[in-house]
Amino acid sequence: MSMQLLGHHHVIMFVLLFWCRIVTETKPASSSVLAPPIAKLNCTTHCGINVSIPYPFGVGPNKDCYFNEWFQIDCNESTGHKPFLRRAQMEVLNISIYGTLQVKSPVTFFGACKGKESRQAPNLTGSPFVYLDRKNMFTAVSCLATMRSDVNVVLGCNSTCDDQNTDGATFRCGTFGTNCCQTTIPPNVSAFTTEIRQRDQIDGCNYAFLVDQDWFLNNLSSYRAIQGMDRVPVVLEWNISLDNTSHKEFEGFIGRKVRPYYGNNFKNDSTPYCKIYNATTSSTYNRSSVHCFCPSGFEGNPYLLQPCQDIDECKLNRCMDHDVIASWNFRGSPICENVAGGYTCYSNVTRATCDFDGRGGGRCYNKPEPPLPSRAYRIRIVLLGMLLYCLEFIIINIDQFHAKNVGKDPCTIYLLNLGSIIIYAL
């Protein structure tokens, strides 16, 4: 009898341990976080070599996938399955929901450039795009080149001409380079024409182009390498013009007040919000526009007008990197707790605590000591421990009690029967 009961006891313990192991092993899979959506439902999200297509951009022909025709992307056999702006006819290299996109723009050739056509940059007048002044540089391999708008010269750059050194292998482009010059462009440029007069040309092939300066500095060993290219990357800035259509779509999100996270003082809202930038205050546009954002501490595509996804700052080791932590009484490594829209750093040693919002702003304080448990609570814990000990003792020694229960008082027999009932229930 004793071996049989002990066997049942071991089986029960094995089942409990096995169940706990299943729970702990399956927990990570259930807590995995999906990437936030970037496009509307049932719309293409990528094209080409993993180029993301976030709304308000979208792949046609479904009109629900993009905001208007300027944001329509072609991605099919006719484009070589590369993303192209349908209206502007520019290949897209990268789109950012923060208002920029990188596209390919033609190099304009002059002089003895064998097999090259002289193409001008696309005219983007009336579009939601402008050439971004803080990211692009006007570059010319020539003695002098100019960029013109419809009526006026917008800018020009000139270089030191040296017909004896035209390979470009040992010279860098600059404000006054040798056979190559660069200059910044003004804001709000949506259309321009590049000109290099014949008298300002060096021997051989001359060309000028607008180019993403980061790409130019990090991907070329010589400016002469451009001669073998037809197009180079440029950065455009995009926005959504404020009109009846855009106001109707975004009106419920324009002007929403978003409060930061400081501990439990504020309820964190993952709903995106939008702002109107008036023509008088906009830095890059001569028209009012709508810009949408996720609240700090959240990420995603706010133009979908869906809840944004919380950023887990603890995975980014924000508590280890924050400067405020060093000024507080944290001993050892601070413990990080992620909350919706923010995070908390605290010390188990000194109880120093800092609550931060998603931007890193917040407050620090010393958390009070937790109250001691009440006397009644401590008594209940002790009684529960004694009861569990008695049950374990009965389970292990039940056979010995049964063998000696003859002639015992009724109370002892009652306890033995109660132990048998408990074991049977288990």
TrEMBL record:
Annotated organism of origin: Prunus avium (Cherry)
Membrane topology: Single-pass type I membrane protein
Gene Ontology MF terms in the entry: polysaccharide binding; protein serine/threonine kinase activity
Keywords, sorted A to Z: Disulfide bond, Glycoprotein, Kinase, Membrane, Serine/threonine-protein kinase, Signal, Transferase, Transmembrane, Transmembrane helix
Name of the gene this protein is made from: LOC110746818
A GO CC term attached to the entry: membrane
Predominant localisation class: membrane
Name the UniProt record assigns to this protein: Wall-associated receptor kinase-like 8
Segments forming a coiled coil: none
